[in-house]
Amino acid sequence: MTDQLLYQIGLTMINGVGNIMGRQLLQAFGSAEAVFAEKRAALERIPGIGSVIAANIKDPDVLRRAEKELDFVEKHRIDCYFMTEAGYPKRLRECEDAPVMLYYKGNADLNAPRIISIVGTRNATDYGKSLTEKLIGELAALIPDLLVISGLAYGIDILAHRAALKHRLPTVAVLAHGLDRIYPFVHKGTAAEMLAAGGLLTDFPSQTTPDKVNFVKRNRIVAGLPDATIIIESAEKGGSLITADLAFSYGREVFAFPGRVTDTCSQGCNRIIRQNKAELITCAADLISSIGWDVERKTLFSPPPMPSLFAGKENDDHHRVITLLREKNELHINQLAVEMDMPVHRLSTLLFELEMNNAVKAMPGSMYKLL
Questions:
Q1: What is the CATH number of domain 115-300?
Q2: Amino acid 315: pLDDT
Q3: Taking Cα atoms as reference points, which of 263, 252, 266, 259 lies closest to residue 219?
Q4: CA-to-CA distance for 33 and 326, rounded, in angstroms?
Q5: Can you list the residues of the chain whose pLDDT is less than 50?
Q6: Which of 201, 198, 246 is nearest to 219 (CA)?
Q7: Could you tell me the residue ranges of all domains in the chain?
Q8: The domain over range 2-75 is classified in CATH as 1.10.510.10
Q9: Which CATH architecture has domain 306-370?
């Protein structure tokens, strides 16, 4: 098995051989070991190979580097999933550009019955934070074995991982570097928790640094591993929209939470909804209903009490808004801002969250009232 793994790792370390060409070589010769054993002339006859890549395959330095990686994998007890083997994530294998090799440290089942990815902006607003917590809290109550995938990045990613851990859902981070480091380093504590209740996954070998291009490459795993991808918040451009486009190209389901047309961090979500690349959702019930997962309807459509949706100061602010509207019946947003002693842009976020939770109704002329 060790010799076989050596050649499998080696296949991913040949200069000029990516995942698609790696698949072609496996189809042509049957195994990674057979690729390295084949004569150079036979390699050159494979479409797209040519003399340069054939020479790269026969370069002895490839297997020397593979030996170092094999030592690292064995020392740190890292699981390796090769594309042709049974343990490889079945959903991901369906994608044309799926990684030939995956390195995994953790205990979550990458072939779990139900898997979602949750991604979004690195600059999450209070609205995005509330949505992430609310969505995962609802999903955990309905689907306790749900696997949550994200990228360990700042913003929505790390919020999704932490909410999953809080609600006892397994969660896996897809990394843009090798398993010899954690980036960003400030998320190391969360990553350590995930080893016991989820895992860390990458297709990059050790010594790979978190270069910008690697984050784009890892997004195909975030998009291809789950049943569906959910975008919480995204500006007009961003990595989460790349993930959404990849998921859409794979024929996977994509969902997005809408936002106000004036909110920068919702412009990307609003656009992909408008382009029919993502389905609009407002809660876990929308998601589950659209995917068609079998969950009891009486549980699915029982909303949690409002206080459970927000925490700390945010909870107090929401109740202050509700109290003022209960006293005044209707208020203009500017009047509310004065009463709350709060900037209008901050108040807009609170009002939108309350609208999304069917507590407040927006009226013509920027007036608000309780439902």
A1: 3.40.50.450
A2: 65
A3: 252
A4: 73
A5: 1, 297-314
A6: 246
A7: 2-75, 115-300, 306-370
A8: no
A9: Orthogonal Bundle (1.10)
